[in-house]
Every structure is written in C-alpha cells, then in structure tokens.
C-alpha cells in the first residue's frame, strides 16, 4: 500500500488557531481481501497509535472539518461520512498514562496543557475505497497505515471505545441502509458483497437468502461480464444502481439479517 508524506506542519504546530475543548476523531473503514480494515496513525513525538483526527477552525462547520481531516489522511474527496456519537467523558483525554506519555515526549508545556484539557470529541466513521486511499503522513505523524479490525494495537485515550461504537453504528447502518458503494470496487461479485456484510456483522449469512434480498432491492445491475483470473467457474459481476442506491440510502428499509 502506497504511503505519501506531506511535509507541511502548519497550522498543526499552533493549537491556538483552533476552537478549544472540541475535536474530531474519525474511524476510516476500508475492505480488502475479505477483511475489514481501519486506518490508524502513529504520532511522531508520542510514539502511540490513534484514530485520525484533529481540531476545528473557528470558521469551519464540524462536517467540513471532518472532511478536511480525512482528505489530509487519505488524499480522497467526496468520502462517505457519518457522525455517530459524541464522546464527552470528563477525563477522556487525561486517562492514566496520558500525562506521563506527554512528559516523555518532551513537547512544550503549552502543548501539553492543550492536549490534556477537557475535550469533547465528535465521532465520525468514513467508508472509503481501500485501493484508492493513500495513507498520508506529516512531520508530526510518523506512520499512517491500515490495520485489520481484529488486530488493532493499543490506542491513545478512549479511542478503542470510539472504534467499538463506530463498529456498532456501522452494523446498524448495514441493517437499515445499503452499503458497499464506498468499500467495494466498481464491479464486484455477489460473493464479494456478501462477504463484506458477513465481515461487518461478524456472522455467516445464507448465500441464497442474501442474493434474493439484494436483487429484490433493485440496487444491483447485473453485468454481461464475469470475473477473470479465477480458478473455478467465473462468477457474474455486478455494479450498484446509483439512483436506487441513493434513494434507499435516505430511507430506512430494514434488512433483517
């Protein structure tokens, strides 16, 4: 997976330019080789992993800030983005070990105070095409990479809890709205779509029942093409019908898996 480095640090070296006491944390999900992935960053000075996130400029809406943050980390635009929960525990950014971590990092005292202040975080999840996203680092971020959702390392603050709630929100989305447009390639097989659903839900879905429900929804167009380079009978390819997909995206229809 290609990684890009952005050498610009401003304005993230001056926290005074942002609104105090409020931040954004993003769970960026991708799907690759039948595995649900999540994008994480490792901070240069702190040596710890976290969700991609950041702060909000006074002139920005919260959604605009989330889109900016995600574009900086993935180089993608027009990302599917959903705000799912507000995290506001009193000590969420000052949990045991947080202050010691900052002291070891030797960041200046003003930055330490900013990062340890009580901060409410808006949780977003994003669904992106794994093959098109370019994980991007900066001088402040030592690493930015995909992790299997089952192998997430220790995360800073309450970010493990944020991931847990994001998965729950994603599962709820999947049961009431179509999913896959932002996670699968343009052309895909019915098996690939079913495995996406199974991976997110964490359970096996009956193949015939799944196919019947998907076709009944009208969100799939069957193509006169088959998947190539497979060692068995070539499966038929599908793509999403964007008009029907968008219509159902704005209406709760209930899947019942």
Automatic annotation (TrEMBL):
UniProt entry keywords in alphabetical sequence: Hydrolase
Pfam families the UniProt entry points to: NUDIX, WHD_NrtR
Nudix hydrolase domain mapped to chain residues: 19-169
Any one GO molecular-function label of the UniProt entry: hydrolase activity
Coiled-coil regions listed in the entry: none
SUPFAM superfamilies, alphabetized: Nudix (SSF55811), Winged helix' DNA-binding domain (SSF46785)
Family annotation (PANTHER family): ADP-RIBOSE PYROPHOSPHATASE, SLR1690 PROTEIN
Protein name: NUDIX hydrolase
């Amino acid at each position: 997976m290609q990684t890009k480095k952005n050498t610009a640090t401003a304005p993230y070296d001056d926290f005074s330019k942002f609104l105090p006491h409020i931040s954004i944390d993003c769970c960026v999900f991708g799907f690759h080789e039948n595995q649900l992935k999540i994008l994480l960053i490792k901070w240069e000075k702190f040596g710890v992993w976290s969700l991609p996130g950041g702060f909000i400029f006074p002139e920005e809406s919260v959604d605009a800030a989330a889109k900016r943050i995600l574009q900086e980390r993935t180089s993608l635009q027009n990302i599917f983005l959903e705000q799912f929960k507000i995290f506001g525990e009193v000590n969420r950014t000052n949990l045991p070990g947080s202050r010691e971590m900052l002291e070891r990092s030797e960041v200046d005292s003003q930055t330490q105070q900013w990062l340890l202040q009580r901060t409410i975080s808006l949780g977003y999840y994003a669904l992106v095409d794994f093959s098109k996203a370019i994980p991007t680092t900066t001088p402040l971020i030592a690493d930015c990479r995909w992790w299997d959702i089952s192998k997430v390392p220790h995360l800073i603050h309450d970010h493990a809890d944020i991931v847990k709630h994001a998965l729950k929100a994603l599962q709820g989305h999947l049961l009431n709205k179509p999913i896959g447009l932002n996670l699968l390639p343009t052309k895909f097989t019915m098996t690939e779509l079913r495995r996406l659903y199974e991976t997110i839900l964490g359970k096996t879905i009956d193949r015939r029942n799944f196919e019947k429900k998907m076709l009944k929804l009208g969100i799939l167009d069957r193509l006169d093409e088959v998947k190539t380079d497979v060692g068995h009978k070539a499966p038929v390819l599908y793509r999403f019908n964007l008009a029907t997909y968008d219509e159902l995206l704005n209406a709760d229809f209930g899947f019942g898996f």
